[in-house]
C-alpha cells in the first residue's frame, strides 16, 4: 500500500508492507527555484538510503575548489555555509537520471577539464562519475538570450529538489551551454557561488563583461541582475546556493 509522510517539510509517498514498514521507494512532487525550473515530466523515483561514494567525492572536490585560498571572499563565504550544511547528508536519493539534450557539449567540456589535470581534472572526473544519475532540464528563454539558447543549454540539480541527493535547504547544480550561447538577463533570487569548468564571460547589473577562467570561482549576490555567455567553446558551470535570503 502507499501513503504519505513528511520529510524535510514536504509530503512524500512511500510504499509500506502489510505490517506498516517502509519498503524503499518514495516519490515526490516537483519544485521550482529562481529562474531554473525543476525538470519537466515525471518526478524521479526516490529511495531512502545513504550518500553514494561518487557523490561524496564530488562534494569533497567541489569544496576544495570553492574554499581555496585565492577564491574571492564572498564566494568562499557562501560556499562555506553550503558545504558545512552538506556535512549532514540527506536520506532521500533519486534512482536514475534522464537524457541530456546537448550531450556532446557536456562530453567536450569534461574532456577538456580532464586534460587540465589537478583539481579541475578531478572535478571533471567526479562529474563524469555521477553523470548517469543526473536529471537534466531546460529553463525558459528571456531578455537578450541568444537564438540558440533554448535548444543548446541544460541544467542539472546534483543536490536539491530533483537532485541525486534530495533536500530543500541548499542547491548544487550544473549548467551546460553550447558554443556562442548567451544566457538571458535575470535577477538572482538567492546569493550564488559559481565555479566555471570552462571559460565563461559574465555580466552583472550595468557593468562590463568580464572573463572567468576555469577554476576561478565568483559570486553573484541576491537581487543582482546576471547574465553569462560563451564563444567558440561550450560552457560548463558548477553552482551552489542556499534557499534562504541570508548569504
Work out the helicity level.
10-25%
Q: What characterizes the major β-sheet?
A: 6 strands, antiparallel
| pLDDT averaged over residues | 80
Give a count of the beta strands, DSSP E runs of length 2 or more.
17
Shape: globular
Low-confidence stretches: 1-41
- The computed structural class is alpha+beta
Q: Radius of gyration, Cα only, in angstroms? A: 18 Å
Describe the secondary-structure layout.
Layout: E1 2-7, E2 10-16, E3 22-27, E4 32-33, E5 36-37, E6 45-48, H1 53-66, H2 73-85, E7 92-94, H3 103-116, H4 118-130, E8 136-137, E9 153-159, E10 170-177, E11 186-187, E12 192-196, E13 200-204, E14 210-212, E15 218-220, E16 225-229, E17 235-242
Antiparallel strand pairs: 1-2, 2-3, 3-6, 4-5, 6-7, 8-9, 9-10, 10-17, 11-16, 12-15, 12-17, 13-14, 13-16
Helix pairs in contact: 1-4, 3-4
Walk me through what this model shows.
- The chain is of the alpha+beta class and 247 residues long.
- The chain has four helices and 17 strands.
- Strand 1 (2-7) and strand 2 form a beta hairpin.
- The longest helix is centred in the first third of the chain and has 14 residues, at 53-66.
- The N and C termini lie far apart (43 Å).
State the main characteristics:
32% strand, 22% helix, alpha+beta, 17 strands, five-stranded antiparallel β-sheet, six-stranded antiparallel β-sheet, disordered N terminus, globular, 247 residues
